[in-house]
Write a structure and sequence with these properties.
By secondary structure, the protein is mostly helical. The chain has five helices and no strands.
C-alpha cells in the first residue's frame, strides 16, 4: 500500500490544527491506536467523527480496504 500511515497522518493532522476539540480528539485517537485499539474504536472513543464516518472506518478496516477509504 502507499500513502501516509494512519498514525503519522493523525499526528500530522493534529499538529496542523489549532487547539480545540478536534486537536484533542486526534491526539486521543492516536494514543489509543498506539495502545492497540482499532482505528474505528479509537475514533469512536475520541468522539470526533459522526456515526456514518465511524461506520465507514469500520467497514474499511474489516474489509482490509482502509487505505482506499481515504483516497
Amino acid at each position: 500500500s502507499s500513502g501516509v500511515p494512519i498514525l503519522e497522518a493523525a499526528d500530522l493532522a493534529g499538529r496542523s490544527i489549532p487547539g480545540g476539540r478536534l486537536k484533542r480528539g486526534l491526539g486521543s485517537a492516536n494514543r489509543s491506536i498506539r495502545a492497540g485499539k482499532t482505528v474505528d474504536e479509537a475514533f469512536a472513543e475520541a468522539g470526533i467523527l459522526q456515526r456514518i464516518d465511524r461506520s465507514l472506518l469500520k467497514a474499511g478496516q474489516r474489509s482490509g480496504q482502509l487505505p482506499a477509504m481515504f483516497g
